[in-house]
Amino acid sequence: MAGDTEVRPSDAATRTPGRGGDRSPRTRARREKIFAYGMLTPTLAVVGLLTAYPIYVAINLSFRGGEIADLQNLGRYPLTLANYVEVITDPELLADIWRSLVYTVGVLAPAFAIGLGLALLLNRTFPGRRIVRPLALLPWAVPGVVVSAAFSWMLDGSFGVINYLLRSVGLIEQNVAWLANSSTAMTAVIIPTVWKFYPFFTIVLVAALQAIPHDLYEAARIDGARSWQQFRHVTWPALRAPAALAIVITGVGVFREFDFIFPLTGGGPDNATRTLAVRIYNEAFEFFSFGVSAALGVVTMFIAGALLLAANRAIGQGVR
Amino acid sequence: MRPHRGFAVAAAAAFAMAAGSACGPQQLDGTLVLEFPSWQAADESFSAWWLELIDAYEQENPGVEIDFYQVPFDSFVAQQTTRFAAGDPPDVVHLPSSNAVAFATRGWLEPLDERLAETDILQEWTPLQEQMKWGEDYYGVLLLGYGYALFYNEALLAEAGVDVPTSPDELLAAAEAVSASSDDVFGFGATTVQNPDNYTELTSFVVGGGGSWSDPDGAITADEPVAREALQQYRDVLATAPPGIQSQQRNELFFNGQIAMLIDGPFLLSEVRGAPAEVRDDLKVAAPPFDVVPGGVSNGLHVPADADPETADAVWNLIELAARPEWQERYTELAAVPAPRQGSVTEEALAEVPELDLFGTLADDAVDIFPTAPGLRQEYGRVGDTVASAAVRLFATDTTVDDVARNLQRELEGVGHGR
Q1: How many interchain CB pairs under 8 A, A with B?
Q2: For the ABC transmembrane type-1 domain, which residue ranges apply (chain A) (predicted)?
Q3: Residues of chain A positioned with their CB less than 8 A from the CB of B192
């Protein structure tokens, strides 16, 4: 453009700062940082308030005794450690934690395996891929309660399609009351949860797969690497970090999952599927023990936090 | 006004309106709007009566409107619990009766004794109204008390060569005979997954056999011989039931002619009428096959404790209207169940629903299956959960009846301790 002069780096470096100009790169960096935080402040304040206030109420409630009936005036109720004493000395707590862990691992392992397999498949070119992709990811869009309702009919002990299919292929001789039997109920709540969660792994892993340069596979093939070796030395290292992150995010979600278990079994039969999340709900809304429920919630928060920290550390070490 | 200031004012106004709408009754143009959430607003058995009653109320009380809306039963108590705990109760409080005491003991419901004293409700109501009492005060008016009945498929019993049972032994024999007659039918229907209905179904056997979970003083009696016998009967009869089904699935199978017998309250009759034509005429009702008629309290109306006087009076006016003889008779006619006011079954209703005669007799004779001991009533949620777990052990495990009874005794003794 006429009148424009090209500014060379050397010119910029030796220019005298005018009014409003930066005195030094450090000052400018500081100003930019202040500006950035200034822009973020409203968001941080809102998010902080929305996160911190409920946590404060839960912690406050967990230290209150008596027949709590008014959550707006918790100050009326005496401070006490009784809720924590009751929760921690309850022999059922360990069983609830164990069931929560079994449920979480029971969901994560198959959901990740299915998600990874499907991601590897969808990363290939094949006829009808455009149709298969959204169909494979469809469960992610279905609300958990709807999934539970559908599976409650499929798992029906007398007329469910799952029993019919298993009988057809000869895997069972008699119908199984999946949701009524203590030994099968956990499996019965894990199955729909896996169905709901595997698409998340697929989405994350497909995105990661598409970021792997093809040159790496070409080089590996030239070096004589077979499919498994290509997966092990090229694909998996690229997937490790996003896979770990997806596992942690999903794991925390599943650990406190409620939507699938409660509609299907309510925590039964005979507490076989009573995870911490279900127990917290029952204490508050079935037994009206708000203080105990809040104390359980705080304990759950600490357990989830500890698992998250451990997972983060493992991810950090794994990625390095 | 600058645009952003206008936006702020609009937002503040919207927030104020939202906040206002979330607390207490709404006053719109001088009209008092009473919020009335219920699980019966869309119920085919009861909604017609409610809508007629509310229409009559609004005509009788100009300046008051009722916002009557549906909340699913499965989440109803949890929603109301949250709202009361948060200091935002509805204006008209409609509760399942098994939960009413828990709400009353937390100070969420207004004692109604003074208001009741000005009516004939306590004199004319079913004795089951006593379940609305906690301590010395009444906290609600019972809308439905009933005795359990035996619903049966006449054709299936005839095919199996058995009569309508009148005792637990006959019930078991009939159920086994029907189950043996075909692979596609079941002798008995029950809830065979863990569910609050497990409590009512198991306790019906216990109360029907003359037992209970506790004596009036609260001493647990789950391990007594009479209770053990009932647990054994329940286990044996449920062995003929479809495994792993909820109560709604149980009902569907009964209406389709795949279940021969089940025990339930009179409200099932309206659903029976919707059964397929080829089965409907075979579905009959009789007295339950027990020495004692087990009964229950279904639901009641209450006034929230901290309502302002105007709202409390308006809510009471609705309760008082519902309790009048003409509306009790209409309840019987529309819902096809005996209303709690004595003498509410009219000739017209009897001609339309002959079973009302039986239902009325059963309601009069009924012994409540809900706990009578104060400690257990207050902790009904925990009691129900504990008994439901015992029921599951009976129909889904090989645990001996003696062990189930012993565990239940111990667990019920622990209910409420340390709280």
Answers
A1: 103
A2: 97-311
A3: 157, 177, 180
